Amino acid sequence: MTTVKNIDARRTQHCETTALGVLLRHQGLDLSEPMLFGLGSGLSFVYWDSKNMGFPFLGGRVKPFELTRNLAARLGLELLVQETVSPRRAWQNVVAPIDAGHPVGLQLDSYHLDYFGSKVHFGGHVVAMYGYDDRDAHLVDTAQQGGTVSTSLTSLAEARAARGPMTAKHRSFTLTAPRNLPSPRGRIVPAITACADAFLDPPIANLGHRGIGKAGRLVRTWLQRTDAPQRDLPQAADLMEKAGTGGALFRNLYSDFLAECTQQLDSSHLRAGHGLYAEAATLWTEVAALIAKAGETGSAQCLAQAGAILRDLSRTEHEAMRALSRLGQ
Asked: What is the domain range of residue 239?
């Protein structure tokens, strides 16, 4: 068996920040999961629906791998990304750095992984791989998926080769920190303002604060949107709370990031943004509970309440991001 030594796996919540944490700690850079998420300008919102979708999807972060690219650029890390349509080349791209003593990040479809409890296709899942033998690959995933886990080489190949929404072509990546690493503290303000600017001025109405407002209008129709509300609505709520979001559709993670930032920067704008996002996190959890209850009971009133809270959340997050955008002034 070939394994990378001194892998530091922790009980973290979100797949991409979990993998990033493993790769960066191996480089000697130890940042909390909320700090990784925030420095990567990870927070967003999307109301995603289309004719070929069985049910609408509420997303609370930027698209897969954008967080990694943002973080690498912001901290001056060398990000080496490899993609290929060849399974043989894809395997070589992974074993070469591991044989050299470095963990590797992989983007894949979690549906095929042996240890994954929820068999739902998600092509934007990210793991860190640190070893392999003749039969299995050894990975680090989120706490809810088991942390340090193994999956068969066959299942890993299927997960990496999968095609569909958010998938990549056998994507693997490594991170290398420069000798003179810029202070993460000095990158906090640019990370926050970039996130705020994108949230406040989305290119389409499905994104940012406008998307939350749109969700508030459309969530009321969700009982009519499906033939299986007892399945689809609770599943949507679970995705908001439990599917690697850290709870509250990533708002807990971002609130914790802002709280950590207030210990390093003295700013009334930052404190205001943190207070509003702490409030928003509580409301998002309430929305998820109402959506789940609506599916279980068939109550249109629960969806009406969820819609009203979402409209409030659109205003709350808009106010929070306006305050945070002023950090750069």
From this structure: 184-325
Pair 160, 189 in one domain: no
Average confidence (pLDDT) over 302-327? 98
Q: List pLDDT tens digits, range 79-130.
A: 999 999 999 999 999 999 999 999 999 999 999 999 997 788 899 999 999 9
Residue 152 β-bridge partners: 136
Looking at the fold, whether 10 and 127 belong to one and the same domain comes out as yes
274 shares its domain with 251? yes
* pLDDT digits 0-9 by tens, 38-90: 999 999 999 999 877 789 999 999 999 999 999 999 999 999 999 999 999 99
Nearest to 58 by CA among 222, 293, 195, 191: 222
